[in-house]
Design a protein that fits this description.
mainly alpha
Length: 180
């Protein structure tokens, strides 16, 4: 499925994930990957169904709660996104992507200081993990980042965030550049 999705053949990839679920119903990974595809396609009802299935099978699933937070953020349900992502970070403080999404949710709520703190926390955790700046930027930009920047100021953060393709990111980057 991953090979097909990476080449823009989402429907075929989703079919492969469904087959994998038939073969190993207890394996949550194909469900999680299907959620990612549906989120990317803005098919929130389908994504929500899979997230509910993940959390029904394992209510403590950290990945399930992370995906639920992503879903809330995508639907602009910012309070719910903050709550869900805070829960994830409480359980796994070094989860850089959760910090990143929490920063976006805070920004959407107009809480710029909290947003900047979470986004910087995300960056620091990725660099601490030894990924290096260019790789950390790509991870934060959901695998589509370009270039490298030394994150230390609001302006640097703005350059980093422009590499992502989230709807909130351009406004967030602009806001931080104004503060720098």
């Amino acid at each position: 499925g991953d090979f097909l999705v990476a080449r823009g053949r989402d429907d075929e990839g989703l079919q492969q994930y469904a087959k994998a679920r038939e073969i190993q119903p207890e394996n949550q990974i194909p469900l999680m990957k299907a959620v990612e595809v549906h989120l990317a396609r803005k098919e929130y009802d389908q994504a929500e169904g899979y997230v509910q299935e993940i959390l029904t099978k394992n209510p403590q699933s950290l990945e399930g709660h992370y995906l639920k937070g992503r879903l809330h953020l995508a639907k602009r349900e910012l309070d719910a996104a903050v709550t869900e992502l805070q829960q994830v970070i409480k359980e796994k403080p070094d989860f850089a992507q959760a910090h990143y999404l929490l920063g976006l949710a805070y920004f959407g709520k107009g809480e710029l200081q909290s947003a900047q703190a979470e986004l910087l926390a995300s960056w620091q955790r990725l660099c601490k993990a030894g990924l290096g700046q260019a790789r950390a930027m790509a991870v934060l930009a959901d695998g589509r980042g370009q270039g490298a920047a030394s994150l230390g100021t609001g302006a640097d953060l703005g350059r980093l965030l422009r590499a992502a393709d989230e709807d909130l990111v351009p406004a967030l980057a602009h806001a931080f550049e104004r503060q720098a």
